[in-house]
Automatic annotation (TrEMBL):
Lineage: Eukaryota, Viridiplantae, Chlorophyta, Pseudoscourfieldiophyceae, Pseudoscourfieldiales
One Pfam family cited in the UniProt record for this chain: DIOX_N
Residue spans crossing the bilayer: none
Location of the Fe2OG dioxygenase domain: 195-300
Protein name: Fe2OG dioxygenase domain-containing protein
PANTHER family for this protein: 2-OXOGLUTARATE (2OG) AND FE(II)-DEPENDENT OXYGENASE SUPERFAMILY PROTEIN-RELATED
Keywords (A to Z) from UniProt: Iron, Metal-binding, Oxidoreductase
Listed InterPro entries: DIOX_N, IPNS-like_FE2OG_OXY, IPNS-like_sf, Iron_ascorbate_oxido_reductase, Oxoglu/Fe-dep_dioxygenase_dom
An example Gene Ontology molecular-function term: oxidoreductase activity
Family of this protein: Belongs to the iron/ascorbate-dependent oxidoreductase family.
Domain of life: Eukaryota
Annotated organism of origin: Pycnococcus provasolii
Length: 345
């Protein structure tokens, strides 16, 4: 398929304004039906929820705008990570992910694939820097220390505000998602108090940098689905393709927007509520310039139960046994092949 045809189909990935979902008061506005502004806020809320539902049952991807992450915070994060990746490899290796029990830190191109679904026959032409959540009060083997440069806190002070702002947007998406599948509004929010969130910053090589002297096929990131709950992506240029309607459709960067997609956990979980949310295959192809992206994987609290209250669990679909995964964290550990981490907790 030509690049032009790919672009023609971008419109299949809808855009949702998060403004009504970020505002926790908007649900109560219905009370005063005579107020014009109240009913327009309520309309905005239900419009957002309906769009999320449609996107999640069809493409599994949607753009969000009015998401609360400022341009300045996003730009600072991009600037800082570009500067980090521009350093010599030996410098970046000082923060090598293999030094961290949670594999947080720097992964070089030579380190292989960095996503949980392996794609045979492809090698990923990308390097990454990974951080995750540190603080938590309960028991979670997936919270812990990050690695940051010791000499200055430039990187940390640019990345942490972005990670925090995106987690806030993710909560608004989770609120809309619960409403979209007829669960109580706070159903997911109550399970995102100490989320197992991770931020992966990526640099994809330009095509001319990609090794060609091997049998391997190289892609920026081979076709895969995400294994977690929600993914929120910012990208500085085009390169992401989404497999929908039997074709690869390009999902370009749009100024001021983030791109959201659902992972396998969301699809698995929703089946218990008799809905089939889509976790969609996607990939990254390398282009003529290096590409950078900031990916936030938002997953529930480690001990969050994935049970759906009986009154919301439809019976038209065969329900999964509630004992299949002890918690959302165990789902992730098993998908990531990290069950040993739990033995240490
Ligand atoms: O960088 C991107 O655009 C997508 C990254 C991705 O799909 C992943 O890390 O799972």
């Amino acid at each position: 398929m030509s690049g032009h045809a790919l672009l023609d189909r971008v419109s299949e990935i809808p855009t949702v304004s998060l403004s009504a979902l970020l505002d926790p008061g908007s649900l109560e506005m219905d009370v005063d039906a005579s107020s014009e502004s109240s009913s327009s806020s309520t309309n905005l809320l239900y419009e957002a929820v309906a769009s999320i539902r449609h996107a999640c049952l069809t493409v599994g991807f949607f753009y969000i705008k009015d998401h609360g992450v400022s341009d300045a915070v996003m730009q600072n994060a991009f600037d800082a990570i570009k500067k980090f990746f521009a350093q010599p490899t030996e410098e970046k290796r000082r923060l090598d992910a293999t030094q961290s029990p949670l594999y947080r830190g720097y992964n070089a191109i030579e380190d292989g694939k960095h996503n949980c679904k392996r794609t045979e026959g492809y090698r990923d032409a990308k390097e990454s820097f990974v951080i995750g959540m540190t603080e938590q009060h309960g028991s979670s083997p997936m919270h812990g220390a990050n690695q940051w440069p010791e000499e200055n806190d430039e990187l940390k002070s640019a990345i942490e505000p972005y990670f925090e702002a995106v987690r806030k947007s993710a909560r608004a998406v989770a609120r809309g998602l619960a409403m979209a599948i007829d669960l109580p509004e706070n159903y997911f929010l109550e399970r995102l108090r100490e989320p197992v969130a991770q931020m992966v910053m990526l640099r994809y090589q330009a095509l001319h940098e990609v090794a060609t002297n091997s049998e391997d096929k190289w892609l920026g990131c081979g076709p895969h689905t995400d294994c977690g709950f929600l993914t929120l992506l910012a990208q500085d240029s085009q390169g992401l393709d989404v497999f929908t309607g039997g074709e690869w459709v390009c999902a370009p960067s749009k100024p001021g927007h983030l791109l959201v997609n659902l992972g396998d956990m969301a699809a698995y979980w929703s089946e218990k509520a008799s809905v089939k949310l889509k976790s969609t295959l996607h990939r990254v192809t390398n282009g003529s310039h290096a590409r950078h992206s900031l990916v936030v994987f938002m997953n529930p609290d480690f001990e969050a139960s994935m049970d759906i209250p009986d009154e919301h669990a439809g019976d038209s679909v065969e329900r999964k046994s509630s004992g299949e995964y002890r918690s959302a964290g165990h789902y992730l550990l098993s998908r990531l092949g990290l069950m040993w981490l739990d033995d240490k907790s």
